[in-house]
Each structure stands twice: as structure tokens, then as C-alpha cells.
Write the C-alpha cells for this entry.
Amino acid sequence: MKNIVDPVEYSKTAVEPYKSLYGEDLISVILYGSAAGGDFDPKKSDINLLIVLSSMDVELVAKSSDLQAKLLRQRFSTPFIMDKEYITNSLDSYPIEFLDMKGCYRVIYGEDVLETVSPQKEHLRIQVERELKGKWLHLLQEFPYARKNGKSLLQLTSLSLKAYAPIFRGLLMLKGEKVPFNRNELFKAIESAYEISGTPFQEVAKACSDKDTSRLETQFVNYARAVKTIINAIEKSDNHGGNR
């Protein structure tokens, strides 16, 4: 797999093709996620782009099919394609996604459409609770099968950690805490903010990184219980009118 040493510079190779394709309909090309300054893995991480167009007309969006296919072969993930109206009108529905995007991004062409993005706290709280519970339920449903196969358990846990990362950032925002983008620092921060016993998120992240499936099965129970501890804290806060 291609080794990407400087993901910011590498991402700029996508700008000219998008400009040629869309001309004045191209408002922005924005790099976000680990490639914009987080814990990017030069050998594994994808390049994530937000493409902002003048409108989200289906024929306009579809013009990028050949370009997207080409970029997918060069470590670019499928981009988010939006217009400014969609962003403005979707902050109440997807505050986690927009805040996560805003947490680490670089404008590599055009207008900074994320600069003024600021979802409401009440919308963030609702989505955080819904996503936290839904993903925890999925963990419990999949664990009985996955524990019989180390590879399945590794995949389940790795994907869940990736999915929980933006939710944890949302939780820290609700508490008014500093929000690290680096995942190891994020797991430390969430364990501290919610007074979780031990270091279950850091432990499973290390086991996943080492591909140590024996240790992972041992740590998985503590991991699932730690997520439930956070859910209990959110529900208790709801009952007392907190985080609103």
C-alpha cells in the first residue's frame, strides 16, 4: 500500500481534478480527520474530503463518478458532497459529524464553510445519547458470535472504537472539557471525565493495535461495561436536567 508521508500535500492532488470537473460550481475542498493533523497512519489511514458544491443536484453530484473511482484507488475515501444550504439545515440532525469534522480540518481550496458551524448543545446531547446506546446494543448483540473467532472480535472492537471516537468528543464538549483529536488522548480524557475505573478504552485500543485477540477477549467485558457506565451517567444527567 502507498506510503503517504505528508497527507495535507497529498490531498491537494485532488483539487485540480475537482476544479476542472466543476468549475464555478466548486465552492470548497476541505480535508478533515486524521490526515488534517491527527493520528494519521502513513500506511493505512484514508484521506477524507468534504466537497462543497453550488447545489446538491443529483446530476451535478454524479459527474464525479469517474474521478471518485480514480481517487479511491489512491487512498482517498468516498467524499462527503454537500452544498452550504444542506450544511446549515443539517446541524440539528448531525451535530456529532459536523463537530468532528470541524475538530480537525484544513481548507485546501475555496471557502471555509466550517468556520461558522456551531450546532446547538441540546441537539448534540440527543444525538450523543442515541448513538451511544445504539452502538452499545450492537456490541452486545455481536459479542457472543465474535468471541468465538479472534479475527471477528478484533474487527468488531476496532470498528466500534472508531465509531465511538466522535461520540466521545461530543460527550467531552457537553461537559465543557478540552477535546483531544488524538485517539489515545481522547480515551484518557473520556475515562477521566466519566470517572471510569481502570483504563478500559486504552486497553482495548492497545490490544487491537497489537492484534492480541487473547487479551482483547479479556478486556472486552470491561470495555462494554465502561460504555454502559457512560450511558448511565447520561441518563442520570437527563433525569436531573443536566447537559441541556
